[in-house]
Description:
alpha/beta, 7-stranded mixed β-sheet, 5-stranded antiparallel β-sheet, 13 helices, globular
Amino acid sequence: MKTESKSAPELRKFTKADPSKKGQWVRESLGVLYVVDGQVQFSDDHEHFANGILRLLEVPEEKLTELIEVWVEQSLALHKKLPSQMPMDAREECLRLAALMVFPPKADRLKELTAGANWGTDFLGTNPDTVYAGSISGNVARGVVGCSTTGFAWLVDPLEKAPVHADSIVYDTAYYDDKPAGHYGPKQYLKQLDWRMQKARRYTAHILEVSGARADKWLKNPSEASLLDVGSAIGLFRAAAAEYGLSHYGIDVSSDAIEHCKNNGFGYDSWLGSIFDIEKHAKPNQKFNIITLWDVIEHIGNHVDAFKLVDKFLADDGVIVIRTPNLECIEAAILGDMYYSYKLDHTSYFSVRSLNSLFEQVGLVPIHTATVSHMFKGCFGAQHLYDAGQRLYGADILAVYARPGSVG
Length: 408
């Protein structure tokens, strides 16, 4: 894989919307604005508009601007008010209705195929009762079903009427391409290394902060503390840990990512394998103070067995860190099939409820849980999304688990 420098986002020149809508798209130093009757209804900075919305949704810019315009139309039709004049719950509902119109869902098609299907069960053995997505952003080759009672869902193949197994996903060079198959793999991964490295540093600092007295002890003799990054890819989080002097190890299923980490990245050797292959590589009785899975748990199966295995390598004062998309979030509620974390390579979908339930099966307890959202800040503002995060309704979960009664 070839590393490329981050490129500036490119946006087409905005034109005025249909005059009958009394709206105008404006692009200026403030950012990207949609203005109706002199009042700003949508406002976002250029970088986030390009990389925080368009890149994630994987839609043409015209579709995104259409979504915002229809949102305003729905607000006026239903409430006789502009979104900026309405309470947040009404804004959310009108945006959800606009998304249904601009991105028609395919849930009914998947429901029609339910008869005779063996969709499987969740990790507690619960049968699915909900179609969360009838397609992956319109791709009807896959869907998402799950259990509303447990807050867990998984990827299914409507043609086979069966779950999509985690080991069927291939992680090779194409997975990291700038333009791989739609809604598969990270986008612009190698072009955004500076931003991703900054993100790795922020998350690593945050994990050390919320680990409290544990981290104080680790950092007194950092070379004696160790971190295992499961799904280490090209080594960004290992590099962030190294800046604190921590010993670090990585394991990944992609030989291409491992080669890049060694020869084109940080020079680190990594173990090749899945979460179930840790035993093959770790030394006898080796323990790790921090075991991280950044955007990994949604790619694996047999979750209880996987984390019972991981727990064997956790030090007494250790923590397991999970970052994963949230099944129960504001973006999923609004976007439906178009929720950007419904992807062809994500075979499992957790909520905070189901994630805590999983680790309860393993014998670990949460010591920190947070969720965050950002996509619709242009519609709702930072305060509303912050409040959603505080209610654990944000799009991304960051959770830290430890043994009950361990030093914190």
